[in-house]
Amino acid sequence: MYCALHTADATWTLPIPLTLVLILCALVYARGWFRLRGSVPNAIPLWRLSLFMSGLLLLWISAGSPLMMRDHDLLTIHMIQHLQIMGVASPLILLGAPTLPFLNGIPRRFVRATRSRIWHWPPLAQLGHVLTHPVFTWLAAMAVLIGWHVPAVFGLAFRSHLWHLVEHASFIVTGLLFWWPVVQPWPSVALWPRWRIPLYLFMATLPCDILSAFLAFCGRVVYPFYLATPGRFNMSPLQDQECAGALMWFCSTFIYMIPAVIITIQILSPARTAPTDQAHVALGGLVGRPASADLEVV
Predict the structure, then answer these.
(1) How far is CA 10 from the centre of its chain?
(2) Alpha helices, DSSP H only, in 115-236?
(3) What domain range is 62 assigned to?
(4) pTM of the model
(5) Is residue 72 part of a domain?
(6) pLDDT tier for residue 286 given thresholds of 50, 70 and 90
(7) Is residue 209 part of a domain?
(8) In whole angstroms, what is the distance from residue 211 CA to residue 143 CA?
């Protein structure tokens, strides 16, 4: 299901399934947020709603807008997509504290019917423990980042629309997993002491630095597919690759180091805010937690 829009030199197709999924997520979150707002006004503040919606919008811009069409012309556009998905959209979605709004946005009957059968099922709890462990989340995110930039794998996604979708899906999933230990959205439990998270973020810059330095300074076009594309902005394929490498180095440094500095300041601050029954300290502010289990579905 696609809706085509013809431009002067290319055709952009609206990915209707992706668009509908993101719209559905936005509607469910908004419904749950308004229900919580009516019963517990301070449970999920307005700024969290704004962050969540901004994250969804960035996902659509990266994977569904005309920007997606241009990543076959410029490696720089391709890099912007990946940085937006993994480095910006994913933490914004988690900072929106999505669990409570989603639990209150879907039908109550479904939540109550599945809560005891699925949520407390031991194999699922063990799987969740593994998937959200910082070691796994770091390795998964870095493996996906480096793996999709191997020329042979990159070419697979470049030539196949299906593999291109798989590539974007893997960036979305591993992006959310990577930022999970950093943001710690409810009802997650910290598996590492907080002082390890700045190191976790710093270590994430190293693979990005190596890849970006290689792209910027290798002196040859790594992905020959771009040699046959028209390009844009009067850049040669090699200049485009150097720009993509520089962009990756600059953006990834700030994306990972700014939250690392914030968390370090929180740890070292002598007047840290004590966790309350509705919130606890996390990246960028307070991550909403319910005062009791009754807040899960109001």
Answers:
(1) 28
(2) 122-131, 134-147, 151-159, 161-183, 196-217
(3) 2-288
(4) 0.83
(5) yes
(6) very low
(7) yes
(8) 12
Asked whether residue 293 is assigned to any structural domain, the reply reads no
Q: How many residues does the chain have?
A: 298
pLDDT of residue 141: 95
User: In this structure, are residues 54 and 123 in contact, taking their beta carbons and an 8 Å threshold?
Assistant: no
| CB-facing half-sphere around the CA of 230: CA atoms within 13 A | 5
Question: pLDDT averaged over the chain?
Answer: 81
Q: How far apart are the first and last CA of the chain?
A: 37
CA distance 244 to 221: 12
* For residue 213, pLDDT beyond 90: yes
Residue with tokens 């720089």: 76
Please state, in angstroms and rounded to a whole number, the distance separating the CA atoms of residues 72 and 155: 11
The stretch 150-166 carries a mean pLDDT of 88
- Report which residue type is found at 177: L
On the question of pLDDT at 148 being above 80, the answer is yes
CA distance 298 to 38: 9
Q: What is the pLDDT of residue 5?
A: 46
* b/e 23-45 (16+ beta carbons within 10 angstroms → b): eebbebbeebbebbbeebeebbb
Number of structural domains the chain divides into: 1
Q: Is residue 220 part of a domain?
A: yes
List the structure tokens of 263. Answer: 């968390």
State how far the Cα of 158 lies from the Cα of 152, in Å rounded to an integer: 10
Q: What is the pLDDT of residue 294?
A: 43
Average pLDDT over residues 126-138: 88
Nearest to 93 by CA among 70, 62, 131: 62
